[in-house]
Design brief:
This protein is of the alpha/beta class and about 500 residues long. The chain has 14 helices and 19 strands. It has 2 domains: about 280 residues, no CATH class; about 190 residues, no CATH class. It is globular. The structure holds zinc ion. Zinc ion binds next to loops. Belongs to the peptidase M81 family. Its cofactor is Zn(2+).
C-alpha cells in the first residue's frame, strides 16, 4: 500500500444536562480551557505538545508513516447542551473536510463521548454515523473517548474501535491517542476487523469517587490494562458522566477481540468485577463550613496546604465556576492564608483592571449563574495582582498547554485570596494560582473548583484533600439530580434507588 491517508479531527464536549448554560458556537470558537476551534493545518499547531488525544495520535511512531489530513478540532468547556446551531455548523465543516480529503484509508476522531445536544441525545453516535455514511464501511474509524463518555450502542456499532482514557485525572489523553494510532495500524495491516463487546453497568458512579489514583478504580484500571493481549487488542472501562439525563448515561465496558466469544467473555468478566465494587464508589463529603473548620484544624499542624474540592461547581462537569458557597464559608470561619480559584466573573476582573493594583473595589462577586442556594458575594476586595491570564500550565493535567483565562486578578478579602478570571477553566494546575501572584505552597488552605482533575497537580503538594458540597450544578451524589429519562432500573447512586421513569399524566 502506498502511504495510507488518514483524516484526523476532533469535536469534544461533556454535557451536563442539568447545568445552567449551553455550549454555543462561540464557546467552541474560543475553546475556554482548550485550544480555540481550528481547521486544516492549524489544528496541528493548536494541539501540539499538549495532553490531547489528537496530539498523541499525531506524535505516535505509527502515524509518522502515514499522510495525515487535518480536518477540524474543537472543544468547549463542559456545560449544558450543545446548541443545535453549534453541533450542525461544526459537524458540517468536519464532514466537509473529510469529504475533501477522500479517498481515505482511515479516520481518527478525538471525541469525548458524553455530548448531548439540543436536538440529539447521542451527539457522538450521530457524528460517527454521519462520518461512516460518508466514508463507507471499508474505511476504519478509530475514536478516542474520555473515561467519562456515556457510550451508546450506536457509537459502538458505527466506529471500528472506541478507545477510552484510563486515568482520572486524565493524564493519559495524549497516550490514549497514541493507543488509537496502534489500533489504526492494526486495522490498516489488513487483519480482520475486531469483534465488539459492550456491557453497560447498572449504577451511576459519583465522579468524586472515580479517581484512578484511589480505590476502587486504581485496581480496576490495572486489571483493564492487564487484560489486553494479541486476542484482546483493546479493553476500555468508562466510568461515565452521571449528569446527562438520557437512556445511555452510565458506566460501561467496551472490548475488542479477535473473535466474538473471547471479546464477549472478557467484557462480561470485567463488568462483573466492576459491579462487585459498587459499594466502594463512595466517600466522605463535608458541608461547606464543616469542611473549612476541618481544614483549619488540620492546617494547624500541617506543613503543606489542606486542599478542598469545591466539587459541585466543577466547570469540568458543567458548573460555571462562579458559586460563592465555599468563599463565604472561608470568610465566615475566619480562615487565614486561604485561596480559592477559579472564580469566573469577567465583570469583576474588568473592574479590578480598571481600579488597578492596590485599589479597593466594591463588587457583587460571582453567583451569577442562578444556582439554587447561591448568590453573589457583595463585599469590598483589595486588588492584589492583575494578569492578562495567558500562561503555560506545566502540571500533568494540562500537560504544558497554553491557557488563556482572559483578564485575571487576585482579589483579597480578609486573609482569603481569590483567583478571578474572564474565561472558564478548571482549577487543575498550580500555575493558575501563580498566574495572579498567589504561591499555592504558602497557603494553609486551597479551595479548588474541581472534582478530581486537580489531584494530578495538587495531590503531591497537599497535606490532605477534603471534598465539600456547596450549592452547585454538579451534584456530588447523582441521586440528588432530578432525573427523568434514564433507563429504567439503573441505580442513581451506588447501592441507591433504582430509577423509575416519570410517567407523563394522561
Ligand atoms: Zn473526563
Amino acid at each position: 500500500m502506498s502511504q495510507p491517508r488518514i483524516a484526523v479531527g476532533g469535536f469534544l464536549h461533556e454535557t451536563n444536562t442539568f447545568a445552567p448554560s449551553p455550549a454555543t458556537y462561540e464557546d467552541f470558537l474560543r475553546g475556554g480551557g482548550a485550544p480555540p476551534l481550528s481547521e486544516g493545518e492549524a489544528i496541528f499547531d493548536a494541539v501540539a505538545n499538549s495532553n490531547i488525544g489528537l496530539c498523541g495520535f499525531i506524535d505516535a511512531p505509527e502515524a509518522r508513516t502515514w499522510s495525515l489530513i487535518p480536518t477540524l478540532w474543537t472543544a468547549a468547556s463542559p456545560s449544558a447542551h450543545v446548541t443545535q446551531d453549534a453541533f450542525e455548523r461544526i459537524a458540517a465543516r468536519l464532514l466537509a473536510a473529510i469529504d475533501r480529503a477522500m479517498p481515505l484509508d482511515g479516520v481518527y476522531l478525538d471525541l469525548h463521548g458524553a455530548m448531548v445536544t439540543e436536538h440529539l441525545d447521542d451527539g457522538e453516535g450521530e457524528l460517527i454515523r454521519r462520518v461512516r455514511a460518508l466514508v463507507g464501511d471499508g474505511v476504519p474509524i478509530v475514536v478516542t473517548l474520555d473515561l467519562h463518555g456515556n457510550v451508546t450502542p450506536t457509537m459502538v456499532e458505527q466506529a471500528d474501535m472506541l478507545i477510552a482514557y484510563r486515568t482520572y485525572p486524565h493524564i493519559d489523553m495524549a497516550a490514549t491517542g497514541a493507543r488509537c494510532a496502534t489500533a489504526m495500524a492494526r486495522l490498516l495491516s489488513g487483519k480482520s476487523r475486531p469483534a465488539k463487546a459492550f456491557r453497560q453497568l447498572d449504577f451511576l458512579m459519583p465522579i468524586a469517587w472515580q479517581c484512578t489514583a484511589q480505590e476502587p478504580c486504581r485496581s480496576l484500571y490495572a486489571e483493564v490494562a492487564a487484560m489486553e493481549s494479541e486476542s484482546l487488542p483493546s479493553v476500555s472501562f468508562l466510568t461515565g458522566f452521571p449528569a446527562a439525563d438520557f437512556a445511555d448515561c452510565g458506566p460501561c465496558v467496551v472490548v475488542y477481540g479477535t473473535d466474538p466469544e473471547s471479546a464477549d467473555q472478557a467484557a462480561g468478566r470485567l463488568a462483573a468485577r466492576i459491579a462487585a465494587q459498587e459499594p466502594a464508589f463512595a466517600g466522605r463529603v463535608f458541608e461547606p463550613e464543616a469542611g473549612v473548620r476541618e481544614a483549619m484544624r488540620l492546617a494547624e499542624s500541617a506543613a503543606r496546604p489542606v486542599v478542598i474540592a469545591d466539587t459541585q461547581d466543577n466547570p469540568g462537569a458543567g458548573g460555571n465556576s462562579d458559586t460563592m458557597g465555599m468563599l463565604k464559608a472561608l470568610i465566615a470561619c475566619g480562615a487565614e492564608r486561604a485561596a480559592i480559584g477559579n472564580v469566573f466573573d469577567s465583570a469583576a476582573a474588568r473592574a479590578a483592571h480598571e481600579a488597578g493594583v492596590g485599589a479597593v473595589v466594591r463588587l457583587a462577586l460571582g453567583g451569577h449563574s442562578g444556582v439554587e442556594g447561591d448568590s453573589p458575594l457583595e463585599a469590598e476586595f483589595t486588588v492584589e495582582a492583575l494578569s492578562d491570564g495567558r500562561f503555560v500550565a506545566p502540571g500533568p493535567y494540562y500537560g504544558g498547554g497554553r491557557l488563556d483565562m482572559g483578564p485575571s486578578a487576585c482579589l483579597r478579602i480578609g486573609d482569603v485570596r481569590v483567583v478571578v478570571v474572564s474565561r472558564k477553566a478548571q482549577m487543575a494546575d498550580q500555575a493558575m494560582y501563580r498566574s495572579v501572584g498567589i504561591e499555592p505552597l504558602e497557603q494553609a488552605i486551597l479551595v479548588n473548583k474541581s472534582s478530581v482533575h486537580f489531584r494530578a497537580d495538587f495531590a503531591p503538594i497537599a497535606e490532605t484533600i477534603l471534598v465539600c458540597a456547596a450549592p452547585g450544578p454538579m451534584a456530588v451524589d447523582p441521586a440528588d439530580l432530578p432525573w427523568q429519562r434514564l433507563r429504567p432500573g439503573i441505580r442513581t447512586s451506588p447501592l441507591g434507588r433504582p430509577f423509575v421513569p416519570v410517567v407523563e399524566p394522561a
